[in-house]
Amino acid sequence: MLDISSNKLTAIPKNIGLLNLLQEFYASFNQIEELPPDIGRLEMCTNMYLSNNCIYRLPEELGKCKSLQMIDLAHNRIHIINPMAVKQLTLNEIRLSANPFLHESITAVAKTGMEQLCDYFRSPEYEDLWQDVGDRHPAEEEDDKKKKKSPKQPKQKPQKQQRDDDDDDDDGGHSNRRRNDDDE
User: What is the Cα–Cα distance from 105 to 176, expressed in whole angstroms?
Assistant: First the structure.
């Protein structure tokens, strides 16, 4: 078992797969956004607790975790799950509650039961949805919309800076300005 929960981590170490005999992995209550592809090397892992993070995408390599029975992704930013990440798994449970961006079709099927949800992830219908929606997150789409809607600011011409000869410069008041012969 490895428990790295509640550590304000923003990422799981990229070489997590070196722990290939790991059976339970706890990484809840952090600030993790993505799982590294190396997570697929955790072939002995039966349970992954990843709730209360900022995860929005799962790598397809997760599908290599052949022993995985339960994955807790509640309270994250999941929108849609790459079918290759779950298609080969024999999950008994996948927790997806409180993912505010979760696609409505996943939410609807999840209400019918775990077996139906796992079957849905393996269905051609879901693969079609994946093709249509892709890996793009609604938050990214919102950012794009904001950028398009924001009025473009007109470019302002740089203003010439006027130098006040009476001001002291950084040279301790010794100015390099030219003297007029008439001034002496």
Answer: 73
Phi, psi of 65 (to 5 degrees): -80, 75
| Tokens encoding 100 | 């505010």
CB 13 within 8 A of CB 36: yes
Query: Residue for token digits 């790295």?
Result: 4
Tokens of 66: 């052949």
Report the chain's C-alpha Rg in angstroms. 28
Domains and CATH numbers, the chain: 2-137 (3.80.10.10)
In a structure prediction context, what are the per-residue pLDDT tens digits for the chain, which is 184 residues long? 999 999 999 999 999 999 999 999 999 999 999 999 999 999 999 999 999 999 998 999 999 999 999 999 999 999 989 898 988 888 999 999 999 999 999 999 988 998 899 889 989 999 999 888 877 777 666 666 566 665 555 555 555 555 555 444 444 444 444 444 444 4
